[in-house]
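Below is how a single chain appears once it has passed through the pipeline. First comes the sequence as given, then the structure the pipeline wrote out for it. We keep one example in the README because the format questions we get most often are answered faster by looking than by reading.
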Amino acid sequence: MYYQLTGDLPAALDCYARDGNYAKVSELLAEHSRLNPGHGSYYRLRNYYRQLPEKEILASPALMSGMSILCSLTFDAEGSERWYAALKDYADSMSRRACDYQEVRGMVRYLDIALPHRGSRGIGEILLALFRQGGRPRLPEFSVTSNLPSVLRGGKDFSQWVPKDREMYRLLAVPVGLLLGPMGVGLPDVALAESRYEKGEDVSDAYLTLTSCQAEIRRKGTPEAEFALNALLANCLVDRGGLDRAVEDMSAFRARMEEAGQKQLLPNLDALLCRFSLLTGGEQAHRWFTEEAPDENDFFIMERYRYLTKARCYLQRGKYLPALALLGRLLDYFTQYERTLDRIETLILLAVCRYRMEAADWREHLTAAVELAYPCGYITVFAHEGAALLPLLREWEWPPPDTEQTEEEKRARRKYLSRLKTAVTAFAARYSDYLAAAGPSVLQSLRKKELEVLRLICQGKTSEEIQSILNISKSTMKTHIRRLYQVLEVNSRASAQAEAKRLGLV
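Resulting structure:
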């Protein structure tokens, strides 16, 4: 009961399960199922959900809804649709006079909008249909951003709306505000500004509207929406060379969210600050990677923003195989779940990774990214890879010379590519150290035996132990140590260990 009252649901469930009180386990899971994925702990609680008897789940609309969400979050689209169908059948069989009829219908509508594997197709039509019904439908809590610093690629990817963003804004601004309640405050204005920003447009004319939104969101909205807005404003500052101010603003926002107990935002806030640090190769990125980066071996899609941040850290450290493995898993998810912007970002990072590995297929990844981005007019997702992407653009052609296209289409593509290259070049000029691959050059300077010595030093072995393990003499050991210190530019074992970890050599 203590854990339940203090909000530690996993610990509470563990205690109730050990006590054999499965009725209470079921009750708590039904309560938890009313939370959106950004606020819920679906992944941590997955085993409790899966241990529930099917008969018990089928008797509870909330549990059917929770199971549908959980399956979607864990790459089981078929299972998600099965539980959705069960919930819909349950709702269809209910009497309209039942006291919980509207609540159960709201759960079905919620899944129509929220299930991750369905993408964003048809959401506009669903929202308009609900709006035209009149009144205010009883929808469960719905977060558009899922605690990420974005509306366009938060809980869903809304790339299909981007080419007609102003039209969609006029059509959906009022319905979104009505249907989502506090969760919808300010979101249409933030989404429109973000759409324009991602297309490389100057959004300075929207600053007055966004400032007004900021105050309104703080009064009536949610911290998630405020995070998305503040991140957009911070990125605008970064683009104009105001990195220090952007870091200052987001650090102040983080302190306010921590004080307010909004813990669900902190992991992605720290990842955003890490990305800012990577622009100049600062210490924040090193600290985040060593202390806070998520473990991709326990892969969970709600961590996607942090995984993409970790992939960048891998690239900076010259750890290309781990970067490749992580990006491959992300690409599979983003492709299956129709997350266009995230997929483009992953393809760009894959191209950079393969280019640095001197593999020829980097051109295929970059071409695929541009082909996906072109219909939406996306520019900024490329620009923000600046100095890391610029060398690739100098060796790459798009469209390929043998492509059959009309002259009008060729002109349009050349214009788009010119804008893209200009944006990437400008960002690279401001942040020339972004993802600078310091690790590989040091790695290449060390001989195989010296690297073995360094790894043993980092394991805490003494000189005598290392000599014995590698079967080398004392004088040879001293030579290796001297060379290591020269290459790493240090003068002690402790400093050598710290520098090796910073560069990702161990």
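The CA atoms of residues 344 and 373 lie 7 Å apart.

See the next section for the split statistics.
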